[in-house]
Amino acid sequence: MPQFRILGSGAGTGVPSFFCSCPACQEARENPEYTRTRSGASVLTNNTMVLIDASPDLRSQLVKNNITKIDSVFLSHWHYDHFSGLGELEYYVKLDRIEKLPLYLPPSAVAQFESAFPNLLDIFNIIPWQFGQRYQFGEVCLTPLVANHSIETAGLLIESNEKRLAYFTDTSGLPEETEKFVSGADWLICDATFYGKNWYPHSHMSVEQAVELGRQVKAKETILTHLSMHYSQAVTTEALKSAVSRYPNVLVAHDGMVIEI
């Protein structure tokens, strides 16, 4: 059975942040179970491993989750907390895989990749993904769909023979056409960056807005991810779980969370 794994459930600052002493960071320092690395995920199907985004914490995520093989990388967008771990794959390709690793990028990010990582041009086979195109990996199909973010950004609809999972870590609601695609999904894993006031309403969502989006698209289960935990109001994981417990079929993501699809 295909397996979807959340490698990182945090927003750009991670939890704990080295510069922060808020209750969420203190909680994570005292109990590593509450640590949140930057957003990323993986899909394992038919012995094929697809990495979704490459966070600054990529090496530790792969080691922690016993991932020893990657067959493709799929980037949702070109923001630092989603692409900066690409360099961690250089020696995997040179010493173990040997051949180039397929890297699916937003079309608008190809030139930026070449500028930022000229030394990795012999590591990756660059493939600009296209919105609405279905990409088959083993028994799972990945379809990039338009998200509402500050730059060209995709969420992914991940479909197996029986289940549908929508993964949107960076988005402010969903465009109408995207909603149609994800309507009735078994899982909506989505941006819930802010607890309290949404500081960036054109790019991200608050916890309340994420819960409402799940209702709107009639997701069977909504899982909150890309959690800053610091802003605009600091909240511990235990307090957040308590706050969302009043909503049916809403869960708080955690690093290492596995969903069988």
UniProtKB/TrEMBL annotation:
Stored Gene3D superfamilies: Ribonuclease Z/Hydroxyacylglutathione hydrolase-like (3.60.15.10)
Metallo-beta-lactamase domain sequence ranges: 37-226
Domain of life: Bacteria
InterPro entries hit by this protein: Metallo-B-lactamas (IPR001279), RibonucZ/Hydroxyglut_hydro (IPR036866)
Pfam families: Lactamase_B_2
Key words of the record: Hydrolase
GO molecular function: hydrolase activity
Protein's name according to its UniProt entry: MBL fold metallo-hydrolase
Annotated organism of origin: Desulfosporosinus fructosivorans
